[in-house]
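hiii so um. not sure if this is the right channel but i have a protein structure encoded as tokens and i wanna go backwards to a sequence. like what aa goes where. can anyone help
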């Protein structure tokens, strides 16, 4: 028999590999053993195998992980911005912070390339539409381009004809139906627009079947309402539109957001659409309650003040200090004054509306209501 003699170096290398493999296996076993020393934080009966990255809760299986998330509301995502003490700061923490900064820079760079962010809030088309609507006494406002109502708006203005082709939305609440009509001329009356929907013979058969309740009702039992914009959610009011008038006349002196939305309501449900009360214009020359009180106080001070005496040395006329002490300091007028009382409840005011209301009076009106003139006459 022939014997094979292995070299010494080969034997030593194989022994070292065995030792290294044994040490790594022992380290892995030690880590697993350290984890298994703690029991599951959910069921408490099994040894823990997993640990939540967010709250460091131990669990033994996937059902326990799901129960932990449902019970505590934990997301399971590690908080990358959590405070770490200097003694616990290691290479893994440094790498985590570096990757977090990279993700932040990537997100910020992606936001600058977004087309919706770079798009202007007011386009040339919207400026043109708002300007032409203002000439027709219509306040037209627009939403940001990210809104659905802004993207679906197809309103167009014909410059030569000076005609609006509105994007119109009709809501029939009693039939739970909505219809959208594009390029509706503002010269059409509401009756002509509704004929294509609720007329017994001229409307389309499919539409007529959906709006059966409206088709059976008479035209005088149908009203059209439009929501008043710029009001609080708990104080909704509506404009009642005239069916016999054109769309332009009905939209005059009203505020629209993107395009008109009309509610077609039957007679039995008219009470569910409260109307906006008629606002009586406040006279700019009418004095407020504060001004009346001020005039009365000035009259009292001039009435009880002593007569002016002439100084024997200087010859100048001096008024006693008692009148000045009795007279109260002038009070500042409120910014809106009595107009707040006439403002309807739930209405949201606009700065442009306040500027229109603050119209200066004529000079003759100021002279007629000037309290200084009354005091001068009484002193003389």
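sure thing!! here u go:
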């Amino acid at each position: 028999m022939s014997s094979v003699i292995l070299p010494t170096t080969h034997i030593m290398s194989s022994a070292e590999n065995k030792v290294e493999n044994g040490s790594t296996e022992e380290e892995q076993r030690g880590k697993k053993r350290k984890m298994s020393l703690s029991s599951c934080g959910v069921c408490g009966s099994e040894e823990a195998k997993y640990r939540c990255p967010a709250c460091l809760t131990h669990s033994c299986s996937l059902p326990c992980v799901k129960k932990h998330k449902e019970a505590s509301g934990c997301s399971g995502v590690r908080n990358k911005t959590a405070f770490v003490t200097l003694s616990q700061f290691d290479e893994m923490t440094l790498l985590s912070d570096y990757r977090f900064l990279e993700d932040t820079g990537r997100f910020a760079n992606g936001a600058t390339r977004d087309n919706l962010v770079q798009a202007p809030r007011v386009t040339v088309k919207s400026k043109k539409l708002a300007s032409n609507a203002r000439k027709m006494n219509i306040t037209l406002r627009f939403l940001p381009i990210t809104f659905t109502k802004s993207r679906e708006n197809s309103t167009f203005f014909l410059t030569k004809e000076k005609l609006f082709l509105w994007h119109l939305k009709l809501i029939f609440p009693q039939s739970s139906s909505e219809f959208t009509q594009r390029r509706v001329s503002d010269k059409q009356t509401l009756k002509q627009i509704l004929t294509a929907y609720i007329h017994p013979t001229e409307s389309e058969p499919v539409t007529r079947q959906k709006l059966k309740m409206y088709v059976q009702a008479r035209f005088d039992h149908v009203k059209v309402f439009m929501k008043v914009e710029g009001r609080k959610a708990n104080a909704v009011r509506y404009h009642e539109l005239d069916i016999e008038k054109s769309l332009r006349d009905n939209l005059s002196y009203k505020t629209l957001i993107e395009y008109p939305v009309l509610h077609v309501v039957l007679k039995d449900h008219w009470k569910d659409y409260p109307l906006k009360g008629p606002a009586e214009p406040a006279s700019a020359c009418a004095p407020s309650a504060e001004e009346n009180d001020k005039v009365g106080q000035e009259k009292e001070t001039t009435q009880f003040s002593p007569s002016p005496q002439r100084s024997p040395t200087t010859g100048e006329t001096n008024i006693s200090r008692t009148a000045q002490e009795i007279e109260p300091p002038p009070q500042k007028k409120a910014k809106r004054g009595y107009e707040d009382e006439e403002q309807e409840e739930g209405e949201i005011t606009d700065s442009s509306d306040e500027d229109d209301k603050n119209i200066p009076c004529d000079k003759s009106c100021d002279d007629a209501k000037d309290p200084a003139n009354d005091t001068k006459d009484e002193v003389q």
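oh and The mean pLDDT is 74.
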